[in-house]
Write a structure and sequence with these properties.
single chain, alpha/beta, Rossmann fold, Alpha-Beta Plaits, 2 domains, 5-stranded antiparallel sheet, 32% helix, binds adenosine-5'-triphosphate
Length: 330
């Protein structure tokens, strides 16, 4: 069998993250260097499995938007390849985009038109959309995002969260195989964030693959089945969220009213990286029998209320992989 050439590498064999036929997005060595020399995306191998809610996570400036713009055919890569729904981008952009709903940098809305009329305009701009079924389609999209009751209000009277939902409704006027959402909860209040997150979960349960970027770790942990972590234009890791977090070691947590004494005993026992608060001591999980450690605490007269290993979070994984904290402020 012929080896794949450098110009057209096999786009789906990217580290065994997902089988070929299941990849909705697959990139190989995707790279973007802007004029002026800024290397925004550096050799990215991304594999997004069909049916996943895929979180594209990274601090501000890590290259998420640039990647999304390449995937949507809005800018050309400097080198490398990208496939979306099995087709090469940018070559097949026109054939692929009708199957992709995208919400990038906030929806373009007419404030003086109602939510419903905004969607009617969107639908009318789509040459494949049958005008006879327009009202039904628009009504269904509004209901889907929970804007049925507010459909007659002018868009300028909408909250930011409602505007985002209207943008999502526009992306959902046609059946889509893939939704691409760039920081969909950015700037929203907690309630608006919750609405968008539950909407995303609902869409995914209908079988649509959702690819969403975020700089919020807990958001990715809450809604995504899979994630890729970016830092400074490079992919740090990707895979199922549960596996990513499991890759990092958790922390030993001893809950006790005698935190000072507990820390002293743990230190004597060779436990490292102790953090003491009023009610507990956390530390690196030592490579030894934990029951013996607990016994040592009790023998020393430390009153132990709780003793265990806290599950590692995606944040722990990020810190373990990069050696840096996850800087949300960028
Ligand atoms: N058109 C451009 N010209 C030059 N540099 C750019 C351009 N667009 C982005 N960059 C730079 O590329 C890097 C990656 O930016 P990008 O917007 O892709 O990051 P991001 O992860 O999406 O962050 P954010 O959430 O802030 O948008 C940044 O250093 C940015 O300044």
């Amino acid at each position: 069998m012929e080896e794949p050439s450098a110009a057209e590498p096999d786009p789906v064999d990217s580290g065994g993250a997902a089988p070929a036929e299941d990849a909705v997005i697959a990139t190989r060595a995707l790279t973007k260097r802007f004029r002026g020399g800024q290397l925004a995306v550096d050799g990215l191998d991304l594999t997004v499995p069909a049916g996943s809610v895929f979180g594209f996570l990274g601090p501000n400036g890590s290259g998420k938007t640039t990647t999304i713009r390449m995937l949507m055919g809005l800018i050309e890569p400097t080198s490398g390849t990208a496939r979306v729904l099995g087709q090469p981008i940018p070559r097949a952009t026109r054939a692929v985009l009708p199957h992709v709903g995208a919400l990038i940098e906030g929806p373009a809305l007419y404030g003086f038109l109602s939510g419903r009329d905004n969607l009617i305009r969107y639908d009318a701009a789509d040459p494949t959309a049958d005008p006879r079924t327009r009202r039904t389609r628009v009504g269904a999209a509004l209901d889907r995002v929970g804007l049925g009751a507010a459909a007659g209000k002018k868009a300028k009277a909408y909250s930011l969260g409602m505007k985002q939902r209207l943008g999502l409704a526009a992306a959902l006027l046609q059946p889509r195989r893939l939704l691409v959402l760039d920081e969909p909860t950015n700037g929203l209040d907690p309630q608006g964030m919750r609405e968008i997150r539950s909407l995303v979960r609902g869409l995914a349960s209908d079988g649509t693959t959702v690819f969403l970027s975020s700089h919020l770790l807990d958001e990715i942990e809450q809604v995504c089945t899979h994630a890729a972590v970016m830092a400074q234009g490079r992919l740090i890791t990707q895979g199922a969220v549960a596996d990513l977090a499991a890759g990092a070691r958790g922390r030993l947590v001893v809950t006790t009213p005698d935190a000072g004494d507990a820390a002293r005993v743990l230190k004597e026992q060779g436990v490292a990286d102790l953090v003491v608060t009023e009610r507990d001591v956390t530390a690196e999980v030592p490579d030894r029998e934990l029951a013996d450690l607990n016994a040592a605490l009790v023998t020393a007269g430390v009153r132990v209320r709780g003793f265990g290993v806290e599950r590692a979070s995606l944040e722990d994984a990020f810190v373990a992989l990069t050696g840096e904290g996850f800087d949300v402020a960028g």
